[in-house]
Amino acid sequence: MSADASRIVIAGGGLAGLSLALALKQALGDGVDVVMCDPALARDPNGDRRAFAIAAAARRMLNALGVWPEVEPKAQPILDMTITDSRLHDPVRPVFLTFDGAVDDGEPFAHMVTSGDLTASLLEACRNAGVSLRPTGVKGFSNEPGRIAVTLGEGEPLSAHLLVAADGARSKLRERAGIGWIAWPYRQSAIVATIAHERDHEGRAVEHFLPSGPFAILPLKDPGTVPDTGLPHRSSIVWTERSDAVPVLLESHPEDLLLELERRFGLQLGRIAFDTRPHAYPLSFGIARSFVGERIALLGDAAHVIHPIAGQGLNLGLHDAAALAEIVIDAMRLGGDPGGADVLDAYESARRRDITAMGVVTDVLNRLFSNDALPVRLARDLGLGLVDRMPGLKRFFIREAAGTTNRNAPRLLRGEAL
Ligand SMILES: Cc1cc2nc3c(=O)[nH]c(=O)nc-3n(C[C@H](O)[C@H](O)[C@H](O)COP(=O)(O)OP(=O)(O)OC[C@H]3O[C@@H](n4cnc5c(N)ncnc54)[C@H](O)[C@@H]3O)c2cc1C
User: What is the value of pTM for the model shown?
Assistant: First the structure.
């Protein structure tokens, strides 16, 4: 690194922060010192068995960053999708909508990837690119003329041009920057677990809309045999319940919990068993009043938290990383300041509309589908049935979910290198 290189400190090595660090370092090389700080860097990423749906646009970005070839063998393409709408005790779950999971040229609209696999590959790529990985938190910061003074965990000072707060939904750095947070709870929690099953999922994702919220079955790459269960296939579930019902469910006898799971999961995939311990995440909506402060940018969940009904939260965070990387890189190539007001303003305007729109869509979908009132059920089932009969509209929805319709998307999301 050259002596007068700019320094960018990223607080938070989740998937959004790591993607940004890699994009910046790959494009700018010795011209920038990218410092990634997170106490979680000391932990083994492979322990995280949560799985995410990575949309086609985000996959193109990971490919452009050179990470996808390593992740792909462990990723399960979603080949089609089935949506049902019923009550829990209904004897059958009528299918209202089916989607073929491909966008243009047969590219799957999304892949299921475990957080551990993706984090491990991004970390390795960051290490190889020369990102400075510091297993410590960012404690605070203060503004100085032309710089931001960052304080790390043990009190170590670090002077930078830009601080990126990628420290998750409960971002302390956002709070410290005095940036407001508009938020409301959903009074729902999502129980997440990996389920082993007897029959092949054939790459099908299923979403059952139930009165307490959506219950999603998302296919994972087959492991051969799932250890301790003797079953050959795996899927991830996102089981939404009213928050007050969740502790009782999770503390119930394992056989009772499995019975409750079977009532929702159904028998299509044969015998089932828990492969991982179920874990509950309280759900809420949140959006920062501004995505930037003086020499600070918010990224990923630190900037916005949405309902997981459409599996888009991380995809938005990767979109933030692609947008911020492009704006910073373009400015620095012209000799600009990566933390300058023009750069930060451009980032704010590049992301505000998209994030607000996705927040509204997921909020409305959740209110519409987690509702047992008969007129609402009839109206939404009519809507689902109509969409199912319109192939053009279905193609539009699937391409929207894949994130491939926006011609002005950042270059990385179009699969182009920076
Ligand atoms: C049930 C559920 C299912 C979901 N499914 C999907 C899906 O299928 N697809 C999808 O796109 N999204 C999904 N999401 C959303 C997704 O999980 C999040 O949007 C995403 O993980 C956020 O990533 P991030 O990097 O912004 O933050 P995080 O992953 O929260 O990372 C923040 C990091 O910051 C670190 N940190 C905290 N404080 C500091 C500090 N002071 N200094 C340094 N580091 C710090 C933490 O240790 C952590 O590693 C789901 C969410 C839920 C709840």
Answer: 0.95
